[in-house]
Amino acid sequence: MELEELVTPINILLVDDNPDNLLALEAVLDHPSYRLLKCLSGEEALRALMKEDVAVIVLDVQMPGMDGFETARLIKSRERTKEIPIIFISATSKETEHFYTGYSVGAIDYMLKPFVPQILRTKIEGFVKLYASNKKLQIQTELLHQKTRELEKMNKELMRTAYKLSKTEAQERVIRQTSIDTMITFDEAGIILSANPALRRMFGYQEDEVVGKHASMLIPCLEETDCSGEAYDPDAEHSGSRLFEVRPMRKSGERFYAEMKLGKAMVDHEQIYACTISDINDRKLAEKDLIEARDTAEVALRAKTEFLAMVSHEIRTPMNGVIGMTNLLLETELDEEQREYADIIHKSGDALLLIINDILDYSKIESGKMELEEIPFALSTCMEETIGLFSAKLQSRSLQTSYSVDSRLPELVEGDVTKLRQVLINLIGNAIKFTEEGSIVVSAELAEEDGESILVKVSVKDTGIGIPPEKVSELFQPFSQLDSSMTRKYGGTGLGLAICKNLVELMGGTIGVDSEAAEGAVFIFTVRLRRHSELPMKHEDEQENRAVSVSGQQSGGARAEQLRARSCRILVAEDNDINRKLIIKMLERIGYPQAAIAENGEAALLELKSGDYDLVFMDIQMPVMDGLEAARRIRQELPGERQPVIVAMTANVLEGDREKCLEAGMNHYMAKPIRMNILEQVMQQWPSYRGLSQGATKSALL
């Protein structure tokens, strides 16, 4: 059903204490088929719901007085409104807490501000269509029930009258008074005595074609039905009527869905049966289409989840080796040039991992559930480091690169530096890809200032092949390429600019391009940031690196001696030889040089049965026996005093993967790529996990 097909506007309730937000929602959802009811509080919304029927409620979370959660609880507690779907919209950063609270009070969806307008419109359109379909089905059902009540009353009157009238008079009265649905009368042998004119429309027969024939020619199931026991008897004290769902047969041989009701009466000492048949074929087909659509959606959702899990594992497994081995390489003796190259590999690996994470979360971006971080950072440092990631490629092409930052911009700003860096990486990477000679210039300037909030305008200009004006509209569509020849020459998934558009809009900005074919391109985007109010002490990345560095020094000195003093027997179960070598080397680096290895879950189980181990690092996806099955077998087959601590070591990082590991009996969870400081933390704390080997609560491990 299209929105234009709706006869009357459908009510949508918008609840937000901020009038500007209500105006914004009204602008997004404006449509001739919608009637938008706007309320500034939960109390006002409850009063509106007492007067109006609504298809869906868009509800703000944080409101003075009665907040969104309390309003939702009251809505769901009322019989009249408990089935209305609720979509929460919130600007809070407490996503997880509010996410679970929202669903617990009955919400059907939860979106974070700023939201993507098209996503909200699509969700609302889906609920409106479902509401309209349900209303249509409800009306049809009420009409059917009304008809049924009328027929019941009619049948009852007819049966009482038929008892008093002669056989011929009863037949004429039945035909005369029944015209909505098909009604036939037949005797105890099942032979049809009469039929009303509706027979021709529903079955395709004339009355004289069925009279004298068995009723099973119309309703095959009557041949096996005890009509005497199933029929309604108006004179019986406890007799009740009920509808049967049957599959009658038309003259063409076509079967259709129908509801049938039987009645009986004694006429001239002969039992006469009256059968009323209502055609419900359209209703049943509509129900079937709804079920098929639901099943198709569920299959697509499962396929998407399985695909993301596969991509996550297949990409993170080699990334674990790249990043881990680079970390180990940087801790060896290198000359200045080698260290520079290794450092670039390390930074590039980290940047690639961030991009991989966001690509794997693309479905979260589409649904408007991507979370923004608010951390202080230096805009100039972000731009410099991003350009530095491409230094080797820039040198190989002899491209000139420069960047500039408007002096009016503050030195430190607050925002999501990770997502800003990903946008820059995509745009600068595209500029390099499509520029054979010339220069690439990146600039940032102050576009707008409103108190602590600032709008930053960033441009990436190149002297490359340019973009034809007629192709500009396709740039920011997912999986789109300008043309096949460009795809063959330059490659790419066509997803990068679509992700950029979503991320920029998520950060409160817009993105566009100014280009002519063969004259280069200028990509311009804006993001909304905040001035950092505190004095700049030390860059966050430097503090983090320093903390890691100190940790490394301790592990190389006194801490390493303390760790070696501990008697910890370690088994590493990992099928990938590079990742296996990496974890062994990392353990050696922090003072554990004697770890044993197993190449799959079955080998790990056999090793544990033949020897005593305190700690097992268990990969999840392995041949022969995976890590989850191995953990379950270990918990089942090893005696309590020999139960080791099991730490999951996996590239599966999607929602629910951690819970699967814990439910299988593991004690802790490390996501690949594995960091040295995380591994060292596990080795310091593993004795405290032993008491959680079995029956551990999730809260104790997360």
How do you describe this structure in short?
With 702 residues, the protein is an alpha/beta fold. 47% of the residues lie in helices and 19% in strands.
Overall residue-averaged pLDDT value? 80
CA radius of gyration is: 36 Å
The span between the termini is: 46 Å
- Profile the largest sheet: 7 strands, mixed
- Morphology: extended
Helix content: 40-55%
Structural class: alpha/beta
Strand content: 15-25%
Structure description:
With 702 residues, the chain is an alpha/beta fold. Helices cover 47% and strands 19% of the residues. Strands 11, 12, 13, 14, 15, 16 and 17 form a seven-stranded mixed sheet that branches. Strand 18, helix 20 and strand 19 form a beta-alpha-beta unit. Helix 15 packs antiparallel against helix 17. The C terminus is likely disordered.
Task: Tell me the layout of helices and strands.
Blueprint: E1 10-15, H1 19-29, E2 34-39, H2 42-51, E3 56-60, H3 68-77, E4 86-90, H4 95-104, E5 109-112, H5 117-164, H6 167-177, E6 182-187, E7 192-195, H7 198-203, H8 207-210, H9 227-230, E8 244-246, E9 258-267, E10 270-279, H10 281-330, H11 336-360, H12 362-366, E11 375-378, H13 379-388, H14 391-397, E12 400-405, E13 412-415, H15 417-433, E14 439-450, E15 453-462, H16 484-490, H17 496-506, E16 511-515, E17 521-531, H18 540-556, H19 558-565, E18 570-573, H20 577-589, E19 596-598, H21 601-610, E20 615-618, H22 627-637, E21 645-650, H23 657-663, E22 668-671, H24 676-689, H25 698-701
Parallel strand pairs: 1-2, 1-3, 3-4, 4-5, 12-14, 18-19, 18-20, 20-21, 21-22
Antiparallel strand pairs: 6-7, 6-10, 8-9, 9-10, 11-13, 13-17, 14-15, 15-17, 16-17
Helix pairs in contact: 2-3, 5-6, 10-11, 10-20, 13-15, 15-17, 21-22
